[in-house]
Write a structure and sequence with these properties.
Layout lengths: L3 E6 L3 H12 L16 E2 L2 E2 L3 E8 L9 H4 L21 E2 L24 H7 L4 E4 L6 H14 L2 E4 L9 H10 L2 E3 L9 H14 L3 E11 L2 H5 L7 H12 L11 E8 L6 E12 L3 E12 L2 H19 L4 E2 L1 H7 L9 H24 L1
Parallel strand pairs: 1-4, 1-6, 4-5, 6-7, 7-8, 8-13, 9-10
Antiparallel strand pairs: 2-3, 9-11, 11-12
Helix pairs in contact: 1-9, 3-4, 6-8, 9-11, 10-11
Length: 366
């Protein structure tokens, strides 16, 4: 099937886990079951077929360095599970816009120099798919980068809670350009969103009326630091809340649901602790309450999902699909263009992979 050339916007913890993961599983047997990966060979693309071709950031600690070095640079603080050798991919200077909040500005020093010609570099490096890993709240910066991606002619995987794939305007822009977009806001392997959704569906399936619920998240990475600026987490709260209420077949008022980041604790590093409480009514109007705590390393928890998402984006490119790609977006992201229950999302995505990989094989055999 050839190679899949991937570019990354924002070389933070998530980018670090993604690059480490592709290197870590480069020799995986196609029959092996890898935690967090749907298939070692997905639609004809092995994990090792992913080649990183482009990277940009604005941090002085990362710009100008090889990608293999930049993924470990401050303030990155995620779990290191692989030693990545030099990749000969220089991290170029990106555009800042609203990417740095007032709290993040205390730990990030912008690299000197002007913004690189992002569109030209994406074209020159023959990058197939761009992954957006900008900080939460980077609304204007994301839209600026989307324009560069559209101009360059690449697919787009939006891992953050800025609404691109779910936006009729941006969806139409990608459709007219003949390019796929997947998003929005990555749903981790087993994160607070998927746990909350599964528990919500359990209540619904077993006939328990969900009366009230909350989800509180604390962590020590730069996203949590950035979200101390409350205005920057609005889209995050919307994304995480919609992911849960989309599973409830009745109205639950805003006063009865609270989901979102709550604080920054530096010593947690890239770990996230999520506290979920659900209060319901059972047979005879008898109360039933559930409380659970989830502890994860945040960035590795989503890296495998992105590996699958970029391969699904490549299948869309190969087969001329354009605009929001519904099936994999529903399974991999918190705020997809269309919400389904998770079991249906998985079935639809498996069918998508099977259908498009068959088309790819037909093209190859002609």
């Amino acid at each position: 099937m050839g190679k899949l050339r991937v570019g990354i916007i924002g070389i933070g913890n998530c980018a670090s886990s993604l690059v480490q993961g592709v290197h870590f599983y480069r020799n995986a047997d196609i029959k092996e079951r890898i935690p967090g990966i749907m298939h070692v060979n997905l639609g004809g693309y092995h994990i090792s077929d992913i080649e990183f071709s482009f990277a940009c950031d604005i941090n002085k600690t990362k710009v100008g360095k090889d990608l293999a070095e930049a993924i470990y640079a401050d303030p990155n603080n995620t779990y290191k599970f692989a030693d990545v050798p030099k990749m000969n991919i220089e991290v170029v200077r990106g555009m800042t816009h609203d990417g740095i909040g007032k709290y993040l500005a205390n730990v990030v020093e912008k690299a000197p120099g002007s913004t690189a010609d992002i569109s030209r570099l994406i074209k020159e490096t023959k990058t197939d798919v761009i992954v957006n890993y900008l900080p939460v709240g980077s609304e204007e910066a994301t839209k600026w980068y989307v324009e560069q991606v559209l101009d360059a002619g690449a697919g787009f995987v939006n891992a953050i809670p800025v609404f691109i794939a779910t936006s009729p305007y941006w969806g139409d822009r990608f459709r007219k350009k003949g390019l796929p977009v997947l998003g929005d806001d990555i749903k981790s392997q087993v994160g607070s969103t998927i746990v909350h959704r599964v528990l919500t569906n359990l209540f619904v399936d077993r006939g328990v009326k969900l009366d009230r619920t909350y989800q509180l998240n604390v962590g020590g990475n730069t996203d949590f630091l950035n979200m101390l600026e409350r205005d920057r987490l609005e889209s995050k709260k919307i994304s995480k809340t919609n992911a849960v209420i989309s599973q409830i077949p009745y109205d639950i008022t805003d006063n009865n649901i609270h989901i979102g980041p709550s604080d920054y604790i530096p010593w947690l590093l890239d770990r996230k602790w999520a506290y979920i409480r659900m209060e319901g009514t059972t047979f005879g109007n008898v109360p039933l309450n559930v409380e659970t705590k989830l502890e994860v390393w945040d960035s590795p928890n989503s890296a495998g999902v992105i590996i699958d998402a970029v391969r699904c984006a490549k299948l869309a490119l190969n087969n001329g699909l354009a605009g929001p790609i519904i099936e994999p977006s529903s399974y991999f992201f918190k705020s997809p263009p269309v919400q389904f229950t998770d079991s249906i999302c998985k079935t639809k995505t498996e069918e998508y992979i099977k259908k498009l990989s068959s088309k790819d094989k037909e093209k190859k055999n002609r």
